[in-house]
Amino acid sequence: IYDTIPIVQLERLYLTFDVLDLLWGDICVSRILLAEGSVNLITYPDTTLNIVSGFQPYQQNVAKETDTTAEQSDDLRIDLEKVDIEDVKVSYKSLLDSSKLETYIGSLNTSLVVSPDSIHSKLEASIKTGGLKIGSSYLFKDKDIALSFDLRVGRNTGMIVIRPSRVQFENSTFTAQGTIETNSPGHIDLQLTGVDRNFKLLDVFLT
Fold first, then answer.
1. Beta strand spans in 44-171 (E)
2. Is the pTM of this model over 0.85?
3. SS3 label, residue 183
4. Is the separation of the CB atoms in 50 and 41 below 8 Å?
5. Could you please report the per-residue DSSP string of 61-82?
6. Residue 122 and residue 110 in contact, taking contact as beta carbons nearer than 8 Å
7. DSSP 136
8. In this structure, what is the dihedral angle of CA atoms 16, 9, 147, 83, given to the nearest 10 degrees?
9. Model confidence over 184-193: pLDDT tens digits?
10. Separation CA 87–CA 168 (nearest Å)
């Protein structure tokens, strides 16, 4: 029965690209809008994920293009100015242990710029959790979460730079900024702060 559930179902999907590039055979998408729909993820008893299984028919074609992709990898450039997600419900169910997770994305705005030297991504999101069911217990039920991230990764240096970023769970706010050097194990310079206005941090996790 779970094989009949669509993985992605959207009322609106918009792409923005340059028509002149398209005429030359290049498809460069700069903006994406996904709105009013649902994403349904399922882990089957053999541990496979439905979205991965759904792409299996394309794996052979991708393998045939591996050599071409390898030649282009050094010059890989992605300039995705904006990805907007509005009013999308994301649900996850595991057929291994019957755990479930439901999340409602009211709005999510992100960007991704990939160059030979760096990867830069920003994210702003407003999310409402439906709850995480583990056994007979629910966590994160009906919680409001706001996210704000600004991340840059040096592809050659291995340096991860986290610019002032924020996670807000209900009345609890956590911020982070600093650097992580992945080429130098243990070299982490992060500033972390947390404010719980009502001193009810446990209420963020429990119903």
1. 78-94, 100-114, 118-134, 137-139, 143-154, 159-169
2. no
3. coil
4. yes
5. HHHHTHHHHHHHGGG--EEEEE
6. yes
7. T
8. -10
9. 766 888 898 8
10. 19
